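Rhodanese domain-containing protein: structure tokens wanted.
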Amino acid sequence: MKIVIIGSVAAGTSVAAKARRNNEECQITVYERDSDISYSGCGLPYYIGEESIERDNLTPRNPKWFEERFNMTLKTGHEVLSIDSKEKKIEVKNLETEEVFKDSYDKLVVATGATPLLPPIAGIERENVFTLRNVQSADRIIDYIVEKAPKKAVVVGAGYIGLELLENLENLGIETTVIEKEERAMTKMDKDMSVYLEDYLTKKGVKLLLGEEVAEIEEGAVKTRSGRTVEADLVLVCTGVKPNSKLAQEAGVKTYSNGAIEVNHRLETSVDSIYAVGDVAMAWSRINGEPLYVPLGSTANKMGRICGDVITGGNLRFKGILGTGIFKVFGMAVAQTGMNEEQALERGYDVEVIHNIKPNQTAYFEGSSEMVIKAVADRRSGKLLGVQILGENGVDKRMDVFVALISSGATVDEFFHLDLAYAPPFSTTKDPVMYTGMILENAIYGKNKIITVKELCENRDSYTVIDVRSPKQYEAAHIPGAINIPLGELRSRGKDLDKGRKYVVHCNKGVTGNAAHNVMLNLGFDCYNLSGGYKNYAVQTKKR
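Answer:
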């Protein structure tokens, strides 16, 4: 059997490696138009900004190593021009010699990745404007910085790559402005979570322009459609990617409207003997099965391994993804998985939403810091739909647990029973994951109703708000119109409250508010606990 693979980054090389591990007899040929293979695309922003990261760290394997290790042929600098699916042949161009030749295949794998999605900006072709997609593009940015020594930069787009580049440009002493056309940073997250990120970046002194669209790039400046001018010697456009599927489409392979190739659980396309993996292919949600395009190296590696197994007769099958992502900007980790609240509501779910603000470890240990967890659950099934977390420490650990819980189909009442690793330097006695489950379980299966800041603000006149913090905390800042009844006085003073009203109780972050909530419920009141307490309210309303 002759296997031909087009593309040799994460997905393509994984196909080749797994196929060879399974079968010593098959012939494997990989064509790559670039000069680098199997590189760490996710490390590119740090390669630009951190001196300790060398090019070799991102490209640890060269074609010769792969050929010898896996007994295969890997041809870099070779572009596949066309696919003849009927004859099972491809046309290839040697980019160095200009020679064009044909090759045949029994099984063909398309792993052509994705290309930057460029918005219609006048002047985007200028020499000081860059996109970041591969090692060579990173090299060009580094060379420009070394040669031109830019003082000010603009990053267009406040997503993963844009914000990672922000940090690394600032590390190089380049004053950087981030311009995002949407009204919030990290549009994959809900507004009530992205606001925490925006607040953090603002406190770091970052110039973050939201709701601004770049119209033109001029000599030394960027102009927005609203008429603002921002000085910039260097411009980095980070506005997403699109599947590089033109070659496959011309061969009759079925794609979605965004260009991503349609595949099944065996990674087979609509054309016989042609497979697709990585950023060029569409995945699907493990929650509801709908198409889901989240191009990440982790998914590409997974698809590649499964495809290599399938082609050589193995039993692996692709089960889909949750769209999990995480990145770091300065000291903050930002992570999300599954659906956000907006997406869940659009799909008709009856959602329960909670905000859980908890330390990552016992507070008396150095390194303890708060994380904000937003969980979205389906009230009908009791299962998680998605989670978003921001914090300085321990975010990745909790997100991975949530991913495992969603993937296994666990209901929220099972979270408390997880036997998680605990010691004061690592966690709290009831881990933030367990607390999240407890809050959701009480809200979905019990009587402890939760109200979000958004819901409260939209229906403020419908509720009497009781602030159960100390008078000192109340006097420092409180929700307008709230009455202050400290928790210790609530049982006695609560008897004088009107039972014909609806109440919202809150403390600073939620724990004391939950205790007050139980008191009010036991006294017979229709009462809600404010999600995330006053701390969450203060962050949300500051941006209104």
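DSSP finds 17 helices and 30 strands in the chain. Residues 297-311 form the longest helix (15 residues).

Cheers.
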